[in-house]
Amino acid sequence: MSHSHDGAVLELHDVGVRYGDREALRNVTFSVRAGELIGVIGPNGAGKSTLFKAICGLVNHSGEVDVNGVHCHDRVDRMDVAYIPQRSEADLLFPITVGELVMAGRRRFRSWHQRTTAADRAAAIEALAAVNLSGYEARSLSELSGGQLQRAYIARALTQEASVVLLDEALSGVDQPTTIELFDLFATLSKSGTTFLFATHDLALARHRFDRLIAVNGTIQGDGSPEQVLAPAVLDSTFGSGASSSQGGG
Amino acid sequence: MHWLTDPFQAEFMQRAFIAAIIIGVVAPVVGTWIVLRRMANLGDAMSHGTLAGVGLAYAAGINVLLGAIGAGLLMAVLLLLFSSNRRIGQETVITVLGTAFFAVGVVVISRIDTGVELSHFLFGRLLTVSWGDIWLNLALGGGTVLVVMLLFGELRLATFDHVQAEQVGVHVEMVQAVLVLLLSVVVVISLRAVGTVMSVTLLVTPAATARLLARTLKQMTLIGVFIGVSVGVVGLMISYHLDSAPGATIGLLAAAVFAVVFAATLPRRNKHHHRPLL
């Protein structure tokens, strides 16, 4: 179940996170190569979101997080990691158009006082086309369905051109055909070197859509192929005893 | 027709109209972000808190606007220092600071002989605005609008999604600090004209009304400015004819416009209330 550290785009070593007296994560160590498409599974409250926030530098953590070989303490920015949170965290009534939202990913390529360029706009239009939202540029977010909204966030991550994309339950509410299309897109992008970590508790999705799974519940419970991680012993340690039988024996 | 032109005859009224227009433009430009960031409570606290600076400046014999700026800056610094304490929360810190500064102002003004009633600081004296006040407000207001225009993109990113904003290189805390500073400048601009209490009305109410109508941030800012200028000018005319307090009349008109727009847009908001999943 171990993975080579050669060519790693993301490395975590002994990472832990505490919220006050509560230990949310402990002893998390794993390495991710460029272009991997990884499912992160675990029950609600298992620490999946906390893990992603630690990778982004959004929560204080112990241990080490390296992105593209740069230690977390030495990173002057977090631009190489795109984080798509669960949709409930955003203000959906904010007066912003889809085009403006997607264009936000381009901010990393210019300084605060520089205006957006034709290349930025072209990148935004291309990203919207990739998530089947062409022609939605002028719509406000309040006009989008839940699934369309998540696709717009994914388009924003694409314009950011991050080498690591973290999707935290990001396809909640997205219909099945669009989910298939988006995973095809993730697969294409991962072949060109973009790394995806996708938090989900949908084990059917996890089984069929990822080459590698990481099971989390407070710490790493399993790391390997879907067959290895969805084995009864790992499922029971991750989701609680009896979980494997309710999932059809894993 | 005389009803419309009479108020403009006297020079003091011309100065009052210019002052109302400056505030009507600047307050919603900053207020847009105060409303979107749900910082109206901060605006309220800041507007009350500047009274401490006003009172102390009077006691020290220096310009009250300098005192107000000083109090605003001190409040901003203390707020940024204390608001990271998660045990009590930012809203609590804002309220404690605002009421404490306000209390200092009331105590100082009640203890010294300023020759001016406390109510003049609270509700302003739009009809006594001088050309000096107008030039100062024009400079401060122009600078404020310029800063918002320069930082428009950064403000949008930091306000909509501060997590993603940090990821793409926006200095979110710096943007927040600048916004608090601009807020204190708006309060200072409003001080002589509409007073500390009414300044928050012009800061929040036109922007909140625009929020109900606008689809984009630029629309929200422009609609807010239109409402701010309109209620300033019309409110002043009404106060002239009714012989009512100008600041309070403007505030009342702004609230009335908000109520009408709120009622008129209620069906549309209800329609968008339930978001389909697919």
Overview of the structural elements:
Chain A has 250 residues and is an alpha/beta fold. Helices cover 33% and strands 25% of the residues of chain A. In chain A, strands 6-7-8-3-9-10 form a 6-stranded mixed beta sheet, sandwiched between helices. The longest helix of chain A has 16 residues, at 176-191. Mean pLDDT of chain A is 84; it is low at 1-5. With 278 residues, chain B is mainly alpha-helical. Chain B has one domain: ABC transporter involved in vitamin B12 uptake, BtuC (Orthogonal Bundle), CATH 1.10.3470.10. In chain B, 81% of the residues lie in helices and 0% in strands. Chain B is globular. The termini of chain B are far apart. Chain A binds chain B through residues 56, 58, 77-79, 81-83, 85, 89-97, 100-101, 104-105, 107-108, 112-113, 116, 140, 142-143, 145-147, 156, 160, 173-175, and chain B through 36, 150-151, 153-154, 156-157, 159-161, 163-171, 211, 214-217, 219-220, 272, 275-278. Chain A: One of its GO terms (molecular function) is ATP binding. Chain A: Residues 10-242 form the ABC transporter domain. Chain A: Keywords: ATP-binding, Nucleotide-binding, Transport.
In order across it, which strands form the biggest sheet of chain A? 6-7-8-3-9-10
Mean pLDDT of chain A: 84
Integer tally of domains of chain A: 2
**What composes the largest sheet of chain A?**
6 strands, mixed
Overall shape of chain B: it is globular
Radius of gyration of chain A: 18 Å
Q: Which structural class is indicated by helix and strand composition of chain B?
A: mainly alpha
| Integer count of domains of chain B | 1
**How many DSSP helices of chain B?**
13
Helix share bin of chain B:
over 70%
GO molecular function (chain A): ATP binding; ATP hydrolysis activity
Domain ABC transporter (chain A): 10-242
Keywords (chain A): ATP-binding, Nucleotide-binding, Transport
InterPro entries (chain A): AAA+_ATPase, ABC_transporter-like_ATP-bd, Metal_Ion_Import_ABC, P-loop_NTPase
